[in-house]
Amino acid sequence: MTNKFIANGEIITTDMSIEDIEFQVQDALDESSSGLVKFRILELSEKEVRMVYIRDFICADPNKHIISDKDMAIITGLGIAAFQPSEVGGYPIIFPLNFIGKNFYSHITAFIRLYKLLLARENQGVEHIGIRTYSDRILMQIIF
User: Fold this and answer.
1) Which terminus of the chain has a lower count of CB atoms within 10 Å, N or C?
2) Under 8 Å CB-to-CB from 50, ≥6 apart: which residues?
3) pTM
4) What pLDDT is attached to residue 102?
């Protein structure tokens, strides 16, 4: 059975090769991030995908279970304004948003709910989504 997931706005299927997935997502990332983010598949099967986004900019505190506006935009491909409050010119699609330093952030579970909704639009159910943000990368696991 073929499953779908979203990586930087690209709808990816688990029957694609790792090379094709990485090329398609990296091409989209190069356009949206000017080459500051690299994408790699760590594991791929019909039941699970593990991926990593490696960033050239420091974003999150790995000791907190939060995800920044930039990271949410990288994963979904929706653009950073979707994760910023209207007071700063955004159109927030996630709640609650908090402010730290120069970034807005949300709790990872709030973002996972949004990601599951995006997958539901593609008629894709998931059993588990795990996200861990580090200062230089985002690790993501989806179990179908």
Assistant:
1) N
2) 41, 42, 43, 44, 139, 140, 141, 142
3) 0.91
4) 81
Residue among 117, 96, 100, 93 nearest 108 (CA): 96
Q: What gap in Å lies between CA 115 and CA 122, rounded to an integer?
A: 11
State the sign of the Cα–Cα–Cα–Cα dihedral 54, 57, 58, 60. negative
Ranges of beta strands (E only) in 1-144 are: 4-7, 10-13, 37-44, 48-55, 66-68, 98-100, 103-107, 128-133, 137-143
Q: What is the pLDDT of residues 7-44, one digit of tens each?
A: 999 999 999 999 999 999 999 999 999 999 999 999 99
Distance of alpha carbon 127 from alpha carbon 105, whole angstroms: 25
Which residues neighbour 17 within 8 Å (Cβ) at sequence distance 6 or greater?
A: none
